[in-house]
Amino acid sequence: MWIGTDGQGLIQLYHYDSLFETVHTSHPVRCFCEDEDGNILIGTKGSGIKLLNPATKELTDYLNESKGLISNSVYALRRNKANDIFIGTEGTGINILNAATGRLEKLEIPDKYPPFKAVYNIYFTNNDSLLWVGTSGYGLIKINISREQGRYHVKGFRQYNSSDKNISLNNDVVYAITSDPEDNMLWFGTRGGGLNCINMKDNSIKSLEDMDSRILLTNNDVLCLLRDDANIWIGTSYGLNELKKEENDFRLIQYADEKLNNKTIHGILKDHEEKIWISTNQGLSSLNVKNNKIDNYTLNDGLQNDEFSDGAFFKDHRDFLYFGGVSGFSYFNPRNIHLREFNPPLILSSLKIYNTVQDINERIRKGVLKLSYEERFMTFNFIAKDFINNENCEYAYRLKNHSDDWVEMGNNPNIIFTQLPPGEYQLEVKSTNGDKVWGDNIYRLTIKVGYPWWLSVPALIIYAILCIIIFYITKSVIKNRIRLSRQVLIAQVEKRHEQKIYESRLNFFTNVAHEFFTP
Q: Which of 118, 122, 162 is nearest to 142 (CA)?
């Protein structure tokens, strides 16, 4: 649709289907879980638990404090093999949603065990008989439970925290838990204390550094974990890490370079193609581990927000991925996420010399921009003509005869040159489309920077003439000096010769006179 405006030019509207399904909520989303019917439970920070019907895409209020929820700030949801859902909140204790009755219950923990609250992670091992609870401020808690006549009973309780001098734990905030059943190891990450593991056979705890001092995470503030076969993906507040197990040794791969939109990793999931999806403070990123290619997605691609939440990531039985954030949640089928191959044309939209706008058609003739020596400060502004997510287009340039390396500008379409030396250059500019796929359309412009007047052709001719004149003058002076030197030398030789003749005559007459007067 084309829209004509009064003074604002011509506007084109187009239909664009977002790659992501997004639902906005009034409170941040902190966790997900799927019930036995395929519905998605969404835990929020402030409005309890909501229920999403994936078939109808309808979101409804489900559980809150008025229905028995300990707190409306829900941080953890986990379903066990009996289809009961365990719920961790800001409040004290743990809720259980009974699948058989649909009733919301509370796990009865004997008073002899210390109370805890602020449950940020729930994890089951040992055929659901061990319940591991990660808390904020109360460390890691292990609860032995059994299910009898539809109700859960606590058979044992163990708290791991920094106040216990028998274990090497230096932080009591546990956001992430996973396990390696083959080695009977439970891995958990703390906020500032790095990655730790518990040997479930003898309950001993070791940090990753204790196991191998050569392995250092990009940051010890661990926010999330994902077990991928024998490997573990570790999301920190500064970078993504992959801990690979190789026989009896470990190897760490770090991802903390500039290709990631943001280094704060809130959630990690793997899709059907073994791509790793991560949520950050600047959208989502997908990592192809085969070639290390990273694709980034932001609010402009249809996400709930650029900022996501710790622990708010989930994969359902259909392989749909869910990520929650400060404004709601986004979910999608990774099979439908594809990048357009559209190759947008690239045009020069404006040219400024010393911040003065120039007429492009007058200044650029036949692909050549001629500049005087005084016009060496210039700004080029380019536009990639992609109407879908144009703000995502990225640019790169190189100035041949000055440097053959491409300079990536990100989303900045402005190229500025200052004090270019006199000479001829070839400017080449390329861009991506709105999905950040690089195209092969290259804008080329020849730039000729003139020489200053003291280096112009007439000036060089004058310099040459002056040099010739100076040369001849110098040559004449030298020749005259040589001639005068020769004349002086001859005169001196002749004078010395005459002096010798005079002395010889004088000696002769003196001898003759002496002979006459001697008897």
A: 122
